[in-house]
Amino acid sequence: MRAISKSFGTFLAVDNVTLDIRPNEFFTLLGPSGCGKTTLLRMIAGFELPTEGQVLLDDRDISSLLPNQRPVNTVFQNYALFPHLTVAENIGFGLKMLGKPKADIAAVVARMLKLVHLDGRGDNPVTQLSGGQQQRVALARALAPQPKVLLLDEPLSALDLKLRKSMQIELKRLQAETGITFVFVTHDQEEALTMSDRIAVMSQGQVRQVGSAREIYDRPADRFVADFIGETNFLEGTLAGSEGSMASVRLKAGGIIRAGLPEGGAPKADLTVVVRPEHAELAAAGSGTFDGTLGEVIYFGTDTHFHVRLDDGGTFIVRRQNTRSGAAAPETGARVGVRLGEGAAQILKD
Amino acid sequence: MAKSFSIKRLPGFSTIAMMTFFVLYLPIATLVAYAFNSGVSVAMWEGFSLRWFEAAWNNDLVIEASVRSLKIASVAAVLATICATLAALATTRTAAYRGMTFKYAFINLPLLVPEIVTAVALLIFFSRVKVWTGYSGLGYLMMSHAAFCVPFAYLPIRARLESMDLSLERAAADLYATPFKAFRYVTLPLLWPGILAGLMLAFVISLDDVVITEFVKSGGQDTLPTYMLGQLRRVVTPEMNAISTVFLLISLAIVTVFFFLSRTPEKDNG
């Protein structure tokens, strides 16, 4: 996808996006609603035409082709199954439109039914299936014609939590088994992190960062990405010196830490550093990187969050895994230190 | 438990309801009853007989008018339904465009224009056309009926289309269906009940039209309703009752089918 833009009237839904999606990867477009991710998906499918730029597939410009001329299939958010057809007829629809012989279609449909665990349900009307089953029919229908790219438009959002979790694993398995490139759209960061090979985080029509789940989580490029994905502590500081990809930062809250530099080096002398709550630990006052006063202690079952009030007025959250032995937690109001592990801190671009 | 408001609890509700049904249906019941009268009066009961049904059946004028009515209604309903289907597709299957509401209003306007105005307009228009072409067959009546039946056919078709998700056609296109195939394999099968309902509604409306037919028809082109109107001006025999009864049964049958067809969308919202 090259320098693609789409505007509706004066509203710029997708702003000069260039993305390179690799063959056979599980690629996710992640962002809050209204960020342009679905519009981007529709331009790949051909339901919207880009105002500017091109959509390339295997180096061929497909921007001006109709949806039915593109070797790309979509799993729709509301499934859009054909209510007047049976499960098997739904799955075979694409192949029938391509003019494949009946015997071939029947063979592929049988294989697809097995793939999505709906063996023996081929003759059922789709209206009699549960939501999870309809979801699987929609998947099978889109996979049956063996598209080059499968587009998934928030397909799990209508399912309940349990079903959603199992479908996440199911999707990952299907992608591995079929070797088809998946482009997945979601606003659910957890979904994106668990399933994707690579993620593009979008906001206001622009791609903010592209990378693996780990890169995006551990080394967020900017404040939006850091804030949107997971929980994050933001610390203000000034640059004290740098060597290679690391820099020393003097924190306003006190102490000096070593933090990773973003691509292109430190942007300016006044910096923001991000630290994930699970990459920090409580220590005795004076023995950590900086000190603070313990505020709320919130128990979450698997872990506990400690809110530490910093001396510069900010709040820093430390997450500790709960263990059976359970180290004694300090009391609210006590002076505590916060120790940051090596590589815990990352400097933001903005 | 809090009692929710129910109109059934208002005093006199059932009395008024019964009276309304009485006033609406008593004349029709009387009409049907006297169709079986053995005497010549439509007001004095003399005994049961089917002689008036027989008389109507053997009356060539009645049969001729009936056949003419059916011919006109069939052609008009088909023409009107085709126009209405295209109109409904154009007003629901595209992104909203300027003037769409205007078009919607324009399609439905004939429902509001007084029928007599349409009738006079058609009479004047077709008398000109007759002079130019020299043709004076049933075509004029068929065209006129088709014209005023369009909005009636349009309503159920549009309702059906609005209950159909646009993403279905999008899914068909995504699955390699050309626009024509998407229409043929997805839109049309789903729309079919709506089209049939529109067809039947148009058929019934055409079948019992008097005003426009009376104005547009040439000599010897009586349809069943205009024939009956003509007869009523002379002698009234239970033959009229018998014809009306058969007419009523046909209409009831069509309306029943229409009812069942227009009920299906609930089930299809998969």
From TrEMBL, chain A:
Domain ABC transporter: 1-229
EC class (word): translocase
InterPro entries: AAA+_ATPase, ABC_SmlMolc_Importer, ABC_transporter-like_ATP-bd, ABC_transporter-like_CS, Mo/tungstate-bd_C_term_dom, NA-bd_OB-fold, P-loop_NTPase, PotA-like
Enzyme Commission no: 7.6.2.11
Recorded GO CC terms: ATP-binding cassette (ABC) transporter complex
The keyword Nucleotide-binding is annotated on this UniProt entry: yes
Gene3D superfamilies named among the record's database cross-references: 2.40.50.100, Nucleic acid-binding proteins (2.40.50.140), P-loop containing nucleotide triphosphate hydrolases (3.40.50.300)
GO MF annotations, alphabetized: ABC-type putrescine transporter activity; ATP binding; ATP hydrolysis activity
Highest rank taxon of the organism: Bacteria
Family: Belongs to the ABC transporter superfamily. Spermidine/putrescine importer (TC 3.A.1.11.1) family.
Subunit structure, interactors included: The complex is composed of two ATP-binding proteins (PotA), two transmembrane proteins (PotB and PotC) and a solute-binding protein (PotD).
Role this protein plays: Part of the ABC transporter complex PotABCD involved in spermidine/putrescine import. Responsible for energy coupling to the transport system.
Protein name: Spermidine/putrescine import ATP-binding protein PotA
Organism, as annotated: Mycoplana dimorpha
TrEMBL record, chain B:
Keyword Transmembrane: yes
PROSITE patterns the record matches: ABC_TM1
Subcellular location: Cell inner membrane; Cell membrane
Residues spanning the membrane: 12-36, 72-92, 104-126, 138-157, 185-207, 242-261
Annotated membrane topology: Multi-pass membrane protein
ABC transmembrane type-1 domain ranges (all copies): 66-258
GO BP, sorted A to Z: transmembrane transport
Keywords: Cell inner membrane, Cell membrane, Membrane, Transmembrane, Transmembrane helix, Transport
Keyword Phosphoprotein applies: no
Cellular component, GO, one term: plasma membrane
Summary of the function given for this chain in its UniProt record: Required for the activity of the bacterial periplasmic transport system of putrescine and spermidine.
Family recorded in the similarity comment: Belongs to the binding-protein-dependent transport system permease family. CysTW subfamily.
Protein name: Spermidine/putrescine transport system permease protein PotC
Organism name: Mycoplana dimorpha
Lineage: Bacteria, Pseudomonadati, Pseudomonadota, Alphaproteobacteria, Hyphomicrobiales
